[in-house]
Amino acid sequence: MVVLPTNFQFSQASLQDYVDCPRRFQLRYVLQLAWPAQEVEPALENELHVQQGAAFHRLIHRHVLGISAEDLSRTVREPDLRRWWHNYLERGPQELPEARHPEAVLSAPLGDCRLVARYDLVAVDAGRRAVIVDWKTSRKRTKREFLAERLQTKVYPCLLVRAGAHLNGGQAIAPEQVEMIYWFADYPEEPARFGYDAAQYEADEAYLDSLVEEIVGLEDFPLTAQDQRCKFCPYRSLCQRGVRAGTLDEAPDAARQAIEDEADAGDALGIDIDFEQIAEIAY
Ligand code: SF4
């Protein structure tokens, strides 16, 4: 059996890492090994994209908290960011419930561990609807079929049902009340929307339980058989799977999405999750 670090909590990102490559999960989360290597070339261009993605998430966060669009617009200079911000203001998701919870953090037990998620936005009409919105700055619009299989699409709605009652006037949120929207800053007219229901909730719970059971029972974490992914993984030299990073254009879908997700990761906001605090949240 693997020994996970004290207070370790699973997240959609760590579970996705495990599904993409068990060895990467081991290196990153069990051994907590930082390995300084580029994930993709050109590195500077990607770094700028990550920075702009973080800036975009900060802008929306402040806007949802009540700072005026006019005041925020004065701070936006970089062309990509200006375009995304304009698209958000002009063609952002419509008809969201009034009660907005940006950067909501939820946590619930998962097997003998816990599962945690930080949401870009949860908009709630108590007792009626709960809409999860995830802002994406992906350079290509991700295919719906691909998103449907991502851990994020399973973890976020499932955890909202299990642990989101305090956002819903104290009542548990029913699966049928949940919707998840991926909104793409460069493709504002093409959001990907996912409804939810009890059957999907049960399937997601069973899948997440089995995944965690499998992980904690492992002693050896195999390298992925899909070695084309390794070109885009910082551990490639450690795993003896090459030295140079590939370019985004040649990345397989899973590797591309992992790279794109960096720009949209919650920690881009620089807000640390206080695990002690969320452990107190009712579930
Ligand atoms: S280099 Fe390849 S095998 Fe090694 S951790 Fe990364 S994806 Fe897995």
Would you write up a description of this structure?
The structure is a single chain. By secondary structure, the protein is an alpha+beta fold. It has a single domain (12-218, 245-278), classed as Lambda Exonuclease, Chain A (Alpha-Beta Complex). Helix content is 40%, strand content 17%. The chain has ten helices and five strands, in the order αααααβββααββααα. It has helices at residues 12-20, 22-30, 43-64, 69-73, 79-91, 144-149, 151-163, 198-216, 253-264, 275-278, and strands spanning 99-110, 113-125, 129-136, 178-184, 187-195. β1 and β2 (113-125) form a beta hairpin. The protein is globular and about 50 Å long. The chain starts with 11 loop residues before the first helix and ends in a 5-residue tail after the last helix. The model is unreliable at 267-283 (pLDDT under 50). The structure holds iron/sulfur cluster.
Set down the secondary structure blueprint.
Blueprint lengths: L11 H9 L1 H9 L12 H22 L4 H5 L5 H13 L7 E12 L2 E13 L3 E8 L7 H6 L1 H13 L14 E7 L2 E9 L2 H19 L36 H12 L10 H4 L5
Helix pairs in contact: 1-2, 1-7, 3-5, 3-9, 7-8
Bound molecules: iron/sulfur cluster.
Which structural traits does this protein have?
283 residues; alpha+beta; Lambda Exonuclease, Chain A; 5-stranded mixed sheet; 40% helix; globular; binds iron/sulfur cluster
- Quantity of strands, as a count: 5
Shape: globular
For the biggest sheet, the summary is: 5 strands, mixed
Strand content: 15-25%
- CATH C-level class is Alpha Beta
How many separate helices? Answer: 10
Strand neighbour order, sheet with most strands: 1-2-3-4-5
Order of helices and strands: HHHHHEEEHHEEHHH
End-to-end gap: 27 Å
CATH topology: Lambda Exonuclease, Chain A
The helix-and-strand class reads alpha+beta
Q: CATH architecture, please?
A: Alpha-Beta Complex
Bound molecules: iron/sulfur cluster
**Portion of residues within helices:** 25-40%
The poorly predicted ranges are 267-283
How many discrete domains? 1
Computed over alpha carbons, the radius of gyration is 19 Å
